[in-house]
């Protein structure tokens, strides 16, 4: 066995080197290989620690993103519920608006009728005024001979005219109030439309942003895991056994 090893060593080292020098060279080469191996192991261990820390960081980021998705989902559901309440309120406002519009149209029609009736009463009143003046003069001269029917008829026309004037004032007040209420309802609908549009835009933006962040996090985590799998588990360089 020693002769075989001697022949092998004789073919590997120069003839001028002694056995001790060859042994020293072998030891030096083995030491250098061991140092290089230790360095590779340290580098590998450092990379593994870095990969592990990065993986933990990405897992934490993924967990944070999931928590954010849950919170944003609650925010979106709350906004959807709020939007539904707004829509229900809008529907009730639209029903009320339609009712006010019908009431306003009825008041306008009634106002037109009263105006027409007022014109007729004025015409009758103007036609009856000369008779009233005549009856007043006759009554002043001889009240006992004047029948009360003509005077009461004229007075009835006057009273009716005054009543119509009062009704006209009341209807005008109701008409103004109805117009104000109609304007308020229209303003409320306009404000709701703008608010609803802004809420929908904000919800769509939040959903898109969360999806993009989660996708980017998953891609980054996948790249890190891929690099970690490609990294060799051992960079060992086997040293030659010293003689």
TrEMBL record:
Pfam families: DUF4200 (PF13863). This is DUF4200 domain-containing protein. Residues 23-140 form the DUF4200 domain. Residues 41-68, 97-124 form a coiled coil. The keyword Coiled coil applies. It comes from Trichomonas vaginalis (strain ATCC PRA-98 / G3). Keywords: Coiled coil. InterPro entries: CFAP_domain-containing, DUF4200. GO terms for cellular component: cytoskeleton.
């Amino acid at each position: 066995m020693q002769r075989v090893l001697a022949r092998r060593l004789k073919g590997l080292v120069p003839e001028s080197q002694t056995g001790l020098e060859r042994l020293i060279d072998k030891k030096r080469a083995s030491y250098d290989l061991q140092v290089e191996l230790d360095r590779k192991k340290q580098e590998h261990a450092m990379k593994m620690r870095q990969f592990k820390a990065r993986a933990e960081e990405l897992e934490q980021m993924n967990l944070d993103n999931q928590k954010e998705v849950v919170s944003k989902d609650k925010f979106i559901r709350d906004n959807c519920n709020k939007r539904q309440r707004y829509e229900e309120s809008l529907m009730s406002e639209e029903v009320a608006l339609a009712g006010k519009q019908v009431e306003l149209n009825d008041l306008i029609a009634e106002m037109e009728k009263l105006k027409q009736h007022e014109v007729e009463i004025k015409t009758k009143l103007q036609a009856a005024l000369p008779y009233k003046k005549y009856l007043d003069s006759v009554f002043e001269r001889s009240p006992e001979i004047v029948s009360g029917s003509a005077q009461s008829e004229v007075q009835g026309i006057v009273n009716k005219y005054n009543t119509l004037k009062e009704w006209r004032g009341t209807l005008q007040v109701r008409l103004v109030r109805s117009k104000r209420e109609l304007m308020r309802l229209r303003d409320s609908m306009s404000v709701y439309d703008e608010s609803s549009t802004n809420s929908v835009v904000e919800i769509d933006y939040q959903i898109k942003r969360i999806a993009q962040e989660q996708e980017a996090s998953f891609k980054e985590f996948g790249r890190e895991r891929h690099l970690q799998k490609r990294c060799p588990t051992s960079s060992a360089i086997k040293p030659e056994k010293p003689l």
